[in-house]
Amino acid sequence: MLKLIRGARVYAPQDLGVQDVLLGDQRVLAIAPEINLSAEWVEHVQAEGMLLLPGLVDSLVHIGGGGGEGGFHTRTPQMTLTDATLGGVTTVIGALGTDAVTRTLPDLLAKAHALEAEGITAYCYTGSYQIPVRTLMGNVTDDITLIDKFIGVGEVAIADHRSSQPNAAELARIAADARVAGMLAGKAGIVSIHVGDHPDKLDLLHQVVAESAIPATQYYPTHMNRNSELMQAGLAWAKLGGYLDVTTSTNAQFIAEGEIPAAQALAYYLQQGVPVSQLTMSSDGNASLPVFDPNGQLVGLEVGRVTSLYEAFCEAVQQHDVSIVDALHSVTLSPATILKLPHKGRIAVGADADLVLVEASNLRISKVFAKGREMVSDGQPIVKGTFAT
Length: 389
What we know:
Elements: E1 2-11, E2 15-24, E3 27-32, E4 42-46, E5 50-54, E6 56-61, H1 81-85, E7 89-94, H2 105-118, E8 121-126, H3 140-146, E9 150-158, H4 168-185, E10 190-195, H5 203-211, E11 219-222, H6 228-239, E12 244-247, H7 252-256, H8 262-271, E13 279-282, E14 288-292, E15 298-303, H9 308-319, H10 324-331, H11 333-338, E16 355-359, E17 365-370, E18 373-377, E19 380-381
Parallel strand pairs: 1-4, 1-5, 6-7, 7-8, 8-9, 9-10, 10-11, 12-13
Antiparallel strand pairs: 1-2, 2-3, 5-16, 14-15, 16-17, 17-18, 18-19
Helix pairs in contact: 3-4, 4-5, 8-9, 9-10
Cofactor: Zn(2+)
Function: Catalyzes the hydrolytic cleavage of a subset of L-isoaspartyl (L-beta-aspartyl) dipeptides. Used to degrade proteins damaged by L-isoaspartyl residues formation.
Pfam family, one: Amidohydro_1
């Protein structure tokens, strides 16, 4: 059946005003102030007084689980379908992190295909924190070029005691291989960069850009809200045209130790004149949130939440005076554009029918559609993962 969403105020993410939106064949078929279809094979969704938003694009999720810094029993669980859909997330980019031994690329790829079968869109990064980069086909170029779901490499760790302590030449080679692969396959070929809390901050990225022909836009540093010093370093990176991603999953101890909440960080960067096209938020969902003592010993562990992405969007709008357009841009169109996913992160004719219908007064999620299929209704999941009870 076709679906006709009637009378919602549409943020695409730009404000299109009140529109009717017609969905069919997993895509947006039409957008107009009034679409009149009354056939029995058209399902009408009355949305007067509500807002219609694009499905969120989460550019960093540990869909297969992560962690392990405290031993095998501390490996975090896999992401489930409803972990994403209940937070309006309809596209996820899966990654490995610290653990690329018991967490593997074949398992990551299988999980991405499983999420697709369950109803949302999933892509992956090849590689992990470590250098030399772990791959499926022997090298980064082949992985990105020949494996449909691999759109980049990462998250490669820098400025962190858990990283392989790469040098500029090593990082430049990874970026060059990913860039060429992206050109060959029509993909982003992006290099996702995990930035730790070492005082080096983004020094290595600046060195690589200064010493190679690879532009700053080939790198996608995340966790840029880790502390105020790193946020300040982000301003210099943004002036080179580089992207900045802030992480929405956090905990009270991280904040007490100086982490800036993602919504606040987004507002700050916008106030400093960084274009929203260079700014994104991601959840780091299902990653471990480790707490280390001064000697690098693990003393605590929590789990990142994909739903924190939508919560941060709401917080940016409701508490930090960020416009709905800018806040939404950072979790939809910005990551979709950076990752070269032209059918995602927007409401437009021909785009995938990934949509979130929310109450205008409080931004509470009412319905979520992924590729035209209703996944959430009245804030409750109506499509669950294969093994959900």
